[in-house]
Specification:
Length: 254
Amino acid sequence: MSSKYEWGKVSEQIGDGKLSKQTRDNNICLLQQNFPEIEKEIILQAWNYCDEDIDETNEILHYVNDNRLIIKSTCLIFFFLKYINFVLSINSIFHDDQKLLLSLLVDFGNQVNKTEILNIWKQCNRIFYETRFKLEEICSSRDTNRVLNIINDRPKEREELMIVRSMSLYILWNILNHSRTIKYRQISSQSLYKNLKLKCDQLGANFVETLNDMKGILLDFGFKKINDEDWYYRQDIQILHLWNRYRKWVNAQL
């Protein structure tokens, strides 16, 4: 039976709601058969990441496996003659590569396309933390540009941009400059409301839209609203993320 026919057969078993245990087990078994060089642990990670979607899991595993084969063919040719003993242990290195690459796809796949992730992965010589650092920079830049574009797309919004830029720089600088001081990690909704209202009245800006923009920006920074009242930054300080936000707002065109 061809692999293509098997994929179609399994797809027909998928109904509404969650898959039955039998169908789930059959799909995982088939994935293992179609990707014998990929460890079961990696297959299960991809399966769970794709919410048990057989077609999406198949696509991800093909992507990871194709990258593995490219690396493998290059390495084997280079190492075989002079380093024959290295070939015996090379598969464990490939499996580690697969796990790391899959984790990058899981963490950044919704913001950066797969081809771009793979290209950066190769440019960084498959060094995980260097690749992750570059991907975080890309996502940080795009997120801030998206917020700025939303504001800039509306007419007569220069005053609003001035206000949110000023507030954003103030908040970011306090967190970065006083990372261990708790008071700079919390923002009173009442104080935020009053300060924005005062600035909007002074500059003739639309208060409702400015307030909504500021709420979205706080969420982007990493703040969360507790019990629908005040804002808190409770996670560990993400220096790179916040610094990139700060640089973007400094360079924002008014």
